Amino acid sequence: MMKVYFTASIIGKKHYLHNYLKIIDHLKEKDCQVISDHIISSTESEIRMEKKEMRLKFHKQLENWISGSDFVVAETSFPSISVGYEISLALHLLKPILILYSIGDPPSLLAHHAEEKLICEKYTTYTLSEIIDDFINYVQGTNDTRFTFFITSKIASFLEKVARREKVPKSVYLRKLIEEDMKNHQ
Fold first, then answer.
1. Helices in the chain by DSSP H: which ranges?
2. 72-92: per-residue pLDDT in tens?
3. Which of 93, 84, 86 has its CA nearest to residue 59?
4. One domain, residues 106 and 175
5. How many angstroms separate the CA atoms of 74 and 17, rounded?
6. Residue 43's domain is classified under what CATH number?
7. Domain around 19
């Protein structure tokens, strides 16, 4: 069983709790042990009222959770400095990280990070499961090869529209195009 550290904005729960729970539920369906209670059960006021020694104790626990996990999933639709810190810590510990966001642009400091273990994906309710499944396969090493390349903003915009229309992740759309072309050239 793989261990997953899940993080997201506690303040953002007001807007995105449904998404957080959907992500956690899908990870559990994939037989992952998900560390998420610190996000789901905590409130902003509880955190503000904690004394310094409790915050330091929690920080040590947080480091242990991240270092003991197989990978990290961060829902970043609602900006959070704490979540950014946790992602940075996970990168430092060489953990694979899936950064998910459902609206707008990807987190500006992470979107173009050149770290192979950092995957940043925009999701919808239709694409979420497949994105998570692809990432778990990547972490488990069952994917053949991960291939990254640069595209123009015009191509990126087109790809985003097509992926949204087809209700599939961009990688799935591109893979289908390549597979179709391979069939035509055999």
1. 13-29, 37-40, 44-49, 52-67, 81-92, 128-140, 153-166, 170-184
2. 999 999 988 889 999 999 999
3. 86
4. no
5. 13
6. 3.40.50.450
7. 2-146
